[in-house]
Amino acid sequence: MNTANQYLKAIYLVQRMDDGPAATGRVADSLDVSPASANEMIGKLEDRGLAEHEKYKGVSLTDEGIARAESALQTYCIIERFLANVLGVEEFRDEAQQLEPVIDETVAERLDTIIDREDQCPDCFDAEADACCHLAGTCGEEASD
């Protein structure tokens, strides 16, 4: 089950990769859902003022949607890095996706102190690799500026 935050995160990442509005089909593919399901949730996000959808052009996040997406992405990165780097969980990505909807802000903040997150998070997230560059070990100079 994908939550609103997971949709916001997916839209945000597709927008970053495509440098413009996110095609609904790409959002659906990234979440492994049907285009109809993606359209339904995008409509709900639009009703909440988090996204703007223009038929045949795609969906864009509002300022509030971007803030929520960045927060969700940051929480996801924290969970993923904690599972992989601290606990050594091999299937950390699957586990992070399962835990993300139930981890609250307080728990994420406490996990954050353990993983020593970089200040530029979530900009350190590589949308094409679908991984935090600190996790993948691919952070270059641009991520540490």
TrEMBL record:
Keywords: DNA-binding, Transcription, Transcription regulation. GO terms for molecular function: DNA binding. SMART domains: HTH_DTXR (SM00529). The keyword Transcription applies. Residues 1-62 form the HTH dtxR-type domain. Pfam families: Fe_dep_repr_C, Fe_dep_repress. Signal peptide: none annotated. The keyword DNA-binding applies. It comes from the Archaea. Belongs to the DtxR/MntR family. This is Metal-dependent transcriptional regulator. It comes from Halolamina salina.
